[in-house]
Design brief:
By secondary structure, this protein is of the alpha+beta class. The chain contains 9 helices and 7 strands. The two termini are 28 Å apart.
């Protein structure tokens, strides 16, 4: 598994490097953010939130085209609709899901609240990662939207709550859990994390 983890990280760093060269605002979310802030787990994809327009999306498609399968039309549609598209690394089959940043108040602030985190030591490499609080909130949303049956999402939330403890901004969690309609889930998760 260490070889697989290294190749996965290399793919993520390749994509991030291209985004940075293009001047695209981004952060890693999903299981990568959950691993940084909580408990690592194996994953077959990476979630990247990106602030793309039509021009930067076309440049991204062109830059990824050699090493990845990526559909230029799907990327253009995702930008227009603020949706998602993906790129699949041809050599490893690792998938990168791009989430075009939304226009809501929470979406707009999410990228601004990103944190620079060291994710590789040799050589040292830092990338922008979704904040611990916003990772919890998004995962609670995904858990609710998925019918509240995903052990993966729930365990990621508990892992972050237990690992971060008092470092979490409780007022931020309370404000946005109310606004996003997941306050009851946050209460349940906080209770389970305390009892674990």
């Amino acid at each position: 598994m260490p070889g697989e983890l290294a190749s996965t990280l290399a793919v993520v760093l390749e994509v991030v490097g291209i985004l940075e060269e293009l001047g695209v605002k981004y952060h890693l979310g999903g299981s990568f953010a959950a691993a940084v802030h909580g408990v690592p787990r194996q994953t077959r994809d990476a979630d990247v939130v990106v602030d793309l327009d039509a021009g930067s999306a076309a440049q991204l498609v062109e830059r990824l085209g050699g090493d990845f399968y990526i559909d230029a039309n799907a990327a253009a549609v995702a930008v227009a609709r603020r949706g998602t598209f993906n790129a699949i690394h041809l050599a490893t089959g690792f998938k990168v899901d791009f989430f075009v940043a939304g226009s809501g108040d929470f979406d707009a602030g999410e990228l601004d609240r990103s944190e620079l985190q060291l994710i590789a030591a040799d050589p040292p490499r830092s990338v922008w990662v979704k904040s611990a609080e916003d990772t919890v909130l998004r995962k609670l949303q995904w858990f609710r939207d998925g019918g509240e049956v995903s052990d993966r999402q729930w365990n990621d939330v508990l892992g972050i709550l237990m690992a971060q403890g008092d470092r979490l901004d409780q007022s931020h969690l309370r404000r946005w859990s109310d606004a996003l309609g997941v306050a009851d889930l946050l209460d349940r998760a906080l209770r389970e994390a305390r009892e674990a």
